[in-house]
Specification:
Chain lengths: 363, 295
């Protein structure tokens, strides 16, 4: 792919102004975790940035995406502030303030529904009855308890874990192995196998979801965790293989030759030399796949009709249709469903951003 | 060495290929078969009906209504997040203090499960206590208040607004990463030439990120054909079929009306609509990669 040359100039204009003089101590500490990871990523652009770029948004988007969500990138604004300190300082400050005011309003607008969930979930029953959607003035864990015990969300949570963790692990193993084979190991039938992966990316789930139901039924996999884990894996694996292939393609051939001269077997080259170099890619793919499977609604809705392995998403849906008026426990159930997402989202910001930006290739 | 490579290659790719053949290739072929027979889910050897399912589909008013809703979804659901997402990205561009909070806040809805989004927005649209009607009442527009999801003329748009809210953060993120590649020298030159903000955005920034704009457009556009979750969760296609889209029609036929073959045929229609667009995306991305993102 022709990305590497463009990657470096692509990253610099964004990086330098923001990173060098502009980075204040306070900001560095605020974004410490993020900055650390994102500089690590940009320090090894050959491994991460270019692959990502080749995949989708082209050069520099990996570094860009990392900064897009996490650490604050530089831009024209920061430059302007530096270049004309006195003359326009008052005007600059008012523009900056109004810009922040506008951004704050927009952020709150986007967060409002999340606030609504938290507030409704943590109110007392009486408060919910009197003023269902007002911000909470009372505090109670009663709704959470009702959802957890009465609504069966403890079981749904376990099912969600049993559905998304094994399928994510399987996606990572299958995609890494196949991605490596597609990228660096010529074998008979490789073109055909890769064409199958590309088809998997292009053909929407809708096309085959109905026959798949009857196929699972005849295989005895309908309404089983194994069956749905396999279907969830299938849903993410074409993208995963495509994604990992791009990572492996960009690794320098010299590494492989050197390892071979040192007497490594093909298997050792894969596991000892190549695999450690694509770890950032595996992490991004893992986070992305986990969120995709955790949030998946249609697959468990279709293939777990019995209800004994219902995960949080379809459990929540069932809960809504069952009792429209029980708003408090419903909000608590919603909160239980999104908490793991919030945690993963906040802890793994960079991987989330990277995964989703490249994930859009899926269409 | 070559043989060792080939052996390992086959061993590494085989599990994935096996999985994809069994759970992807076979059901895709079955789908084609289903669309030419009359399958009810029980009969072992369903009768061959030729193109009957397809002709039925083309004369089905419900399908056309659904397709119309998909068209509305694609136009508004593509253009709106694009404009708002670009606006927020431009606002955020170069902002340092607090920028992480803003980004996280706007992007978070995109990773929320659809059911949680649907439930919360259902409350916001609540006819009596919902925030939307409350706010409208507070600013003196109480007359506009309605049961947003229960009113046939607003249901589709209410769901669409929710989808737009959820998608905007993603578009913003893509644009933010594209803006990192914009040539700041050019921007400074334009500033020296006394170009105002609007002129700088229009003549300097937008042309540089045009390929990304095109790509985001196509990606959201393709998604518009196979929209299902949020509509199914929020309205189930109702009230009275008002917010039905092709996805919900295919689902209802196959899994609620037992019209397996007809549902599959509608799903084939969705496929036929979205694959060309998906291929276009692929082309576009390759071109983007070749140009180093339009620089």
């Amino acid at each position: 792919m022709s990305t590497p040359p463009a990657a470096t100039p692509g990253m610099t204009p964004g990086m330098t102004p923001g990173m060098t003089p502009g980075t204040t101590p306070g900001q560095t500490s605020a974004t410490s975790a993020m900055s650390a990871t994102s500089t690590a990523a940009s320090a090894a652009p050959s491994a991460t940035a270019t692959t990502e770029g080749a995949l989708l948004l082209a050069s520099g988007s990996a570094g860009g995406s990392a900064r897009a969500l996490g650490a604050s990138g530089g831009g024209p604004g920061s430059r302007a502030e530096g270049s004309s300190p006195n003359r326009t300082s008052r005007r600059a400050r008012t523009t900056r303030l109004s810009r922040h005011a506008l951004l704050l309003v927009l952020s709150l607008l986007w967060l409002a529904p999340v606030v609504l969930i938290v507030s409704t979930a943590l109110k007392t029953d009486r408060d919910v009855t009197v003023n269902p959607f007002g911000l909470f003035t009372t505090f109670s864990l009663g709704n959470l308890q009702a959802a957890w015990v009465g609504g069966g969300f403890d079981g749904y949570l376990l099912n969600s874990i049993l559905l998304s963790v094994p399928s994510t692990a399987l996606v990572l193993v299958l995609s890494t192995c196949a991605g490596y084979a597609f990228a660096r190991l010529p074998f008979p039938g490789r073109g055909l196998a890769f064409a199958l992966v590309v088809m998997g990316l292009l053909v929407p789930f809708f096309t085959y979801m109905i026959p798949l139901y009857f196929q699972l039924r005849s295989m005895g996999l309908l309404d089983t965790l194994v069956g749905v884990d396999l279907v969830l894996t299938l849903g993410s694996v074409p993208f995963g293989a495509f994604f990992m292939r791009a990572f492996f393609t960009d690794l320098p051939t010299e590494l492989e030759h050197a390892a071979r001269v040192d007497g490594c077997s093909e298997w050792q080259i894969f596991t000892k030399v190549m695999l450690p170099l694509v770890r950032p890619g595996i992490a991004a793919l893992g986070v992305f796949t986990f969120l995709q499977t955790w949030n998946n609604f249609l697959v468990p809705l279709l293939y777990l009709p019995g209800g004994s392995y219902r995960p949080l998403t379809t459990g929540l849906f069932q809960f809504v249709s069952g009792r429209q008026l029980d708003i408090g426990p419903l909000a608590a159930a919603t909160l239980i469903t999104i908490i793991p997402v919030v945690v993963v989202f906040l802890v793994m910001q960079r991987q989330v951003a990277e995964g989703f930006i490249s994930g859009s290739v899926k269409g | 060495m070559r043989r060792a490579q080939a052996r390992l290659g086959i061993a590494l790719a085989a599990p994935l290929v096996a999985l994809m053949v069994v759970f992807f290739a076979v059901p895709v072929l079955s789908a084609v078969y289903y669309s030419f027979v009359a399958y009810d889910g029980i009969t072992a050897a369903p009768a061959f009906v030729g193109l009957a399912n397809y002709t039925r589909m083309l004369t089905d008013a419900q399908v056309w209504h659904g397709l119309g809703n998909n068209a509305i979804w694609i136009v508004l659901g593509t253009a709106t997040p694009l404009v708002i997402g670009l606006g927020i990205a431009l606002l955020l561009w170069g902002v340092r203090a607090g920028s992480r909070f803003y980004r996280l806040a706007v992007f978070f809805p995109y990773v929320m499960p659809g059911v949680a989004i649907g439930i919360t927005w259902g409350w916001i649209y609540d006819p009596i206590n919902g925030w939307l009607n409350t706010v409208l009442g507070a600013v003196g527009l109480g007359a506009l208040g309605t049961g947003w999801l229960g009113n046939p003329s607003t249901a589709l748009f209410a769901v669409l607004a929710t989808a737009i809210w959820a998608a905007t953060g993603f578009v913003m993120l893509i644009f933010l990463s594209a803006l990192q590649n914009v040539d700041v020298e050019l921007l400074d030159a334009a500033r020296l030439d006394r170009a105002n903000t609007v002129q700088r955005i229009w003549h300097v920034v937008l042309p540089q990120i045009m390929p990304v704009i095109l790509m985001v457009t196509t990606v959201t556009l393709v998604g518009g054909f196979s929209v299902f979750d949020i509509v199914f969760i929020m309205t189930g296609g109702g009230p009275d079929g008002a917010s039905e889209v092709l996805g919900t029609i295919a689902f209802t036929n196959a899994f609620q009306l037992n019209e397996i073959s007809y549902g599959t045929t509608i799903a084939m229609f969705i496929t036929a609509l979205s694959i060309p667009a998906a291929i276009a995306i692929n082309r576009l991305q390759r071109r983007l990669a070749d140009q180093g993102m339009g620089r």
